[in-house]
Here is the input.
Amino acid sequence: MENQYAIEMLNITKRFPGIIANDNITLQLKKGEIHALLGENGAGKSTLMSVLFGLYQPEEGIIKKDGQVVKINDPNDANRLGIGMVHQHFKLVECFSVLDNIILGVEPNTAGFLQKAEARQKVLDLSEKYGLQVDPDAIIEDITVGMQQRTEILKMLYRENEILIFDEPTAVLTPQEIEELMQIMKGLAAEGKSILFISHKLNEIMEVADRCSVLRKGKYIGTVNIAETTKEELSRMMVGRDVEFVVAKEPAKPTDVVLNVEGMTVASKMHANNAVKNVSLQVRKGEIVCIAGIDGNGQTEFVYGISGLEPLKSGKIEFLGQDITKMPIRKRSVMGMSHIPEDRHKHGLVLDYSLENNLVLQRYFEPEFTNKAGFLKKANIRKYAERLIKEYDVRSGQGPITPARAMSGGNQQKAIIAREIDKDPKLLIAVQPTRGLDVGAIEFIHRQIVAHRDAGNAVLLVSLELEEVMSLSDRILVMYEGEIVGELDPKKTTVEELGLYMAGAKRQ
Amino acid sequence: MVLLLQYTLIFSSVLLLVALGGCVSEHSGVINLALEGIMVIGALGGALVMKFLPYTHGQSSAFVMFICVLCAAILAGVLYSVLLAFACINLKADQTIVGTALNMLGTALATVVVKSMNTAMNPDDHSSEIKYIDAKKAFLTNIGKFELNWFMIVAVIMLVIVFILLYKTKFGLRLRACGEHPQAAASVGISVFKMRWAGVLLSGLLGGLGGITYITAGVSTWKFENGVAGFGFLSLAVMIFGAWDPFRIAGAALLFGLFRALGNVYNGFAFLKALNIPSAVYNMLPYIVSLIVLAFTSKKSRAPKAEGIPYDKGMR
Here is the structure.
């Protein structure tokens, strides 16, 4: 009987000191199927992929390609076996052209001199065959994220890879681009490519995948046929309990204005234009206002302006009735403004500090943590950190003294959220608060944000996740090229309509 | 006028060679601050050959002498850059600190070697000088009044080679990828370690060449305790002004070379002499110009993105 599996990972076990990252996991990818790999953060998906790419050697288990046992010692072995991957963070050289990025590593050459003409033709042929529209001569930093992703896909096709792995490919795309990607994936599978689709977005898995394997806490839970399952069942398999998809919340009862922005303009660091152009908005007590938009349309700079990380070019910011346009960041924070930053490594944590020191980063100067002589009260800091760690379920290897760098991304995010919400701010600015988190953690954070609103505070949410925008916010403002192009009511709009505003196709 | 041209070209050649060295290294992702030290060691290698290889002008083969000196300077520069490569790439040391240490070591090492050598040959001689009056003639060809130094030609050849290497070959594409996004390069099976080693060693080669060119520009003896008077750093300025692009670096080198040459020959121009500015001012010119030029241009030029960051496989 002919072997029906393109790649099989059988009974893989990989241990790290103190933890079993993969415990007897089996993953079998059929030829020409789209196979989803579902699991929470830390479920062992990345470790399993690292084993497949030869970055780790498993203690137990074997890998078979077309029924033959193979040994994968490094990524080059994986490449030779025809395994390719679109990484979550693209591996593209930004100042190179699309073509250069595609041929990098497998350059057609005569005596070391590049011969690009042939390669260009091959790329054009492939892009036509699979409907992957790219301009081979465009420079990566000038093109859209969607086109960058298509470049990554072409990289695999150019190498004639048979097994294509997509690692959370939709995180950075617009709804329209996601739809396109789904079509592309289906097209690739129809051409006989085998696709492994790593994701924790159940809707997408339901739409595109044929089968789905679920991991939980390093263990293999099972493989199901998508046609015979439901979203609820998948999530139960992943989390181990029922998860609420819809954020339970009462209708908002907005009262006094907390934040009032008038005519805000912020210069851009990337180009000569202004990143934020003459934006005015208000956020009231007891409501969650969401700024939606595709990444890079000025949301980042807008938040920098409000939090004080960037000076305004013009405009005015009032917070609790006071003009704070030129107020330093510390004062804004003390006044009751909290900021969950977009880039948790750059603005959220001091990575080489311990968790406890990170947790008091904005409060260490308060009498509770510093005595009159200016020395830190270590015992109080420890006690405070231990409380937050418990309340917010921040998991780490060594508790309060774990270096922030050694924590997983999800738990780093939880630590920031604990610090920012526990300050009990009048205004909580949350930028992408659930980025890269799993369903369970997202549910928890959403509940925290809603509870904070219900306690009579204002929340300004900036998110790229449409589901989050739709379910969490009371009011949606869409930002496009630095301007607010529409205000929508999440109860009366659809994801499609929102997508049109975000793409600049529609405005009020 | 001819003299000005001659000096401009020879100083520009030095700056061009060394700046190209910096350029290759930085495109691979390693900031080579040690160029100054590499120049000194390269110059020492060449000077020793000039001192000890028997040569009588007009009788021995000038070409053999030239090739020997060239190879010695290259060899010395490359060997010295091994230290930088090993510390920065394998040991992941801070590139700025290693570079600075190697600069200090370079001049000191050369001084000690030459002094002990001089003292060994003549107990009364405690200088750090090497004389190569005769040997130097091997590299010079007179065209009318213009004294062509063969290293000028070497510099032009190197310019073309570096350009082709960086932008027309497989090697160059890979090298630049390592300086921009080493993780991306590694993900397609390129060895970042190897490429960075290659980049640093090539910069050692070019830096060594620049060193020997510098000490044969205009003078016939060299005091090694003077090092190379900041020419390595000036070359870094040229490289930044040239935006890491070989041909723009060549343009920048000509500009800086001109100012350096003015210091040597301003006496030959009646109107400059009439201004009665002290010679120290002319000698300062290239350094002052580099300060001003960089203050205005360095913000715009784009350095390779990953330069200065040691490559770590685990980082994503």
About this structure: Chain A touches chain B at residues 75-76, 79, 85, 87, 89-96, 100-101, 103-107, 109, 112-114, 155 (CB under 8 Å). DSSP finds 17 helices and 22 strands in chain A. The first strand of chain A starts at residue 5 and ends at 16. The domain at 257-336+425-502 of chain A is CATH 3.40.50.300 (Rossmann fold).
